[in-house]
Amino acid sequence: MKKTLVIAGLAVLSTSAFASKARMEALGQGSYSYYLSDSRSVFLNPASLNDMKNYIVTEWGTGLTAAGAVQADTATTPRAEGGFFREMGSFAYGLYLGNNGPARTYTSSATFLDHQNAMDLMLAGDMGMKWGARLHYANSKNEGTFDTKNSALGLGLGLSHGDMEAYTNITLSDKSEGAKVAGDVWKRKPGFQVGGSYKWSGMTFFADYNSTNEEVTAATGSDLTNVLGIGANSIAAGTTVTHKTSDITVGAARVHEVNPGARIMTDAKLVLGSDEIAGSLLTAKNGKVKTTTLPVTIGMEADATSWLTLRGNVHQNVILGSTKSIAGKSSTIANSTTVDAGATLNFGKLKMDGSIGTTGASRDNTDVAGTKKGVLATDNLLTRVGVTYMF
Amino acid sequence: MKKIMMIGSALLVLSSSVFATEARLLALGMKETDNEGMYYVQDGRNIFLNSAYVNNYADQLVTEYGGAGRVLNGLRTATTDAVYNAKAQGGVFKKYGGMVYGLYYGNESNTSSLLRVLGTADTTGFKMLQTADNQIDLFVAGDAGVKWGANLLYSNGKNEGTLQSKDTAITTRLGLMDYNWDAHANISLASKSEMASATGTQAFKGKLGLHVGGSYAAGMGRAFGYIKNYSWEQENTGSTTVKGSFTSYYLGYGSDMTVNSSDKIIASLALRKTDINVKFSTASTVHTFAIPVTLGYEAKANDWLTIRGSVVQNLYGKKDNGNLTSASLNTTAQQVVAATYGATGKGTIANSTEVNAGATVALGQITIDGVVGISGASRTAPNSSATNNGVLTGDNLLSKVGLTYKF
Prior knowledge:
Largest sheet of chain A: 18 strands, antiparallel
Mean pLDDT of chain B: 84
Distance between the termini of chain A: 31 Å
Oligomer: heterodimer
Order of helices and strands of chain A: HHEEEEEEEEEEEEEEEEEE
Number of strands of chain B: 20
Distance between the termini of chain B: 32 Å
Order of helices and strands of chain B: HHEEEEEHEEEEEEEEEEEHEEEE
Helix content of chain B: 10-25%
Shape of chain B: globular
Number of domains of chain A: 1
Strand content of chain B: over 45%
C-alpha cells in the first residue's frame, strides 16, 4: 500500500512538471488533454491551476507576423506565448500572454483582424472543492482608409472534486469589423465548450461538447472570397454566411504507471463532428458535413536518464473514420495513422520540452521543415520548444 | 536568517558580476534600441546605461562575437546590431588602486545609425551618410561613498573617394550609484556626418543629445525611468535645411526576485513613449505608446550551464505613424523605421508577444553567453536564420555569442 502511494506521488510529481504544447502533441493530445495531467489543462479546466502553480512557461516562436496576417499556431510555425502562475495563500493566479486563439479564416483579397496581444487572467482556489476561472481578452484597432478592429472576450470556469471534473469555456464575444470595406463583419456568436471527466477503476471517462457559430457579412460593394474555406466568390455583396460547427466527444483513457519513471497511456474516443454552412453564393457549399471517427491513441513516456524524458504515440482511426458530404455521400478518412515523438531535457527546476522528428531528410527546398520522414536530426534537435521554470 | 541573507546577497553579486553581455539581457527581455542595459537586472552591460556600474565589473574582458562594426552594408542597405546579425565589440576593465578603468571597442549606437539613416536626404538611399565607425569608449570609475563613473565615447571616420564622406561623434556618460538609487546623464556632445559627391552635398548635424534617467529601490524591485532626446539638422544641396527630433520616455517598475542562490525570476511593467519627427515638406512622424509587461526566469541548470528566458507583451500598444512611405524619406530609412516602429498608419501595435531564451556556459573563469532559438525549422531560403520558429538546433546552438573572461 505504501509503495503504491509512493508511486502515485512520484507520478503526480513527474507529470505535473511538464507544461508545454510539445508534450501534449507528442502524446497525441492536441493542444490539451482530457485526462493527462499537464499545465496546458488550465485552458480546458481552470481548476487545474490548483494542482500546477509556481512556474513560468515560455513557448518559443514568433509573434511578429504582420498585422492582419493569419496567425496559425502550428508545430512548424509556433507562436510566441508564455505565462506566469503563482500561489497566493489558498488561491492561485496566473497571467498568460499571446494565447491568440485559433487562426481566423480570411478572404483572399482582404483581412479581418485576428486576436492581437491576447491576455488570459486566471484565478483558482480550493474550498473543499477546487474551482478556477479564466478570463480571455483581446482588443485591437487599425485606423486607415477605414478602421479595422477586433475585440474578444472569453470566460472559462471549472471545478474539480476528487475523481470528478467539470468545466465550461464560453466565447462571450468575438467580433472583427472591416476587411475589404468598412462594413464587412466577422462575428462569433456565443459558443460553448462543456465537458467533464470521472476517474473510476483506473480509467478516466470523459465527455466534451464544443460548438461554434460564426457569421461573416460582406457589405455592399464588398467581394469577400475564400471565407471559411468555402471557395471563391463565396459571399455575395450585402449578404451573410453562417458557419456552425459542433463536436461531441466521448471517450475512455487509461494511464498505466509501469514504474515511477515510465507510463503508458491509451485512449479511445468517439468523435461526432458537424460543420454546416448556409448563405454561400456557391449553393453547393451550403449544407452540413458530418464526420464520425473513433481514434485510438497509444502513447508512452519514460525517463531515459535523469536528464532526459522521451515520449511518443501512435494514433489511428479504428473501425469508424468517415465523412458524409453535403450530398450524403460517405468517404473514408484516409491515412489517419500518425506518429509523434518528443523529449524533455530536465535541468532540475527547469524543463525544456520539444518535438522530435519533424524534419525532412535533407536541407533542400523540396524537403521542408514540418515534413515527417523518420529523421532524428541533430541540427533540428527539438522543435516547438517550450521551457518551464518552477520556483 | 541574517547568514542566509548575507550568503544569498554575496552569491547574487558573485553570480551577476560574471554576466556581461547583450545576449543575457536580450534573453531576459531587454527592449532598448542600443541594448544599453536594464535598470532592474544586474549585468555588466549596464555600464552603457550608467557608467558607475563599471565599479561592479572590474577585472574582466568581454568580447561580443559579430561581423564588421560599421552598420552600413555597401551604400544602400542599412543594418543595425541585431540578435541575428551581431556586430563585433568588446573591451577590458581593470581595477588599479581604488579606481576602475575600462577600454571598449565597437559599441556603435543603433540610435545614432538610425538618425543618420533618417538624416540622409538622398531619397534613393544610394548615397547613405556614413555612420559611426571604429568607436572607442574610455571608462573611469571610483567609489567616494557613492559610486561614480564617467565615460568618453569617440568616433571619427573619413573617406576620400568618389563619394567623400566623414563622420564624427563624441559622447560622455556620467553616472552615480548608491545602494538604493542610481542616476545617469549620457550626453551627446557632437554628432556630425557629411557626404559630397558629383551631384552635391548632404550633411547630418546632431545637436546636444540627452539620455537622462535613473532608478530607485522600492519594495521588492526598482522604479525606473529615463528621457532620451536627440535633435538634428540635415542639409542637402539646393534644399532647405530639414529638422528632425527623436524623443523617448520610459517609466516603469521591475524586479529580479531571487528564488535561491543561483535562480531568479524577473517581472516588470513599464510605460514607453517614442516620438520621431522629420520635417520634410511633408513631415514623416513616428508616435508609439506601449505598456509592455515582461516575465522572465534565470536558472542554473547544472554546474556549467545557466538557462534563461522571458516573455514580453504589450498590455496596451498604440502607434500613429505618418508618411513613412513619403517620397521625401529615403528608401533605407523607410525600411529601417518600419522594421523598428511599424508601418505608416494608426492603430494597435500588432503581435507584440515575444519569447526570448538564452544560455550561459560557464567554464571556470570564462563564461560564454548566447541567445537560443534564433533559427528557422529548416535551412531553406524562406526559413532564414532570423526566424524564430521555436527550434533548439544543434548547428545554431547559440546566437549573438559573448564571452567574458574574469581575471
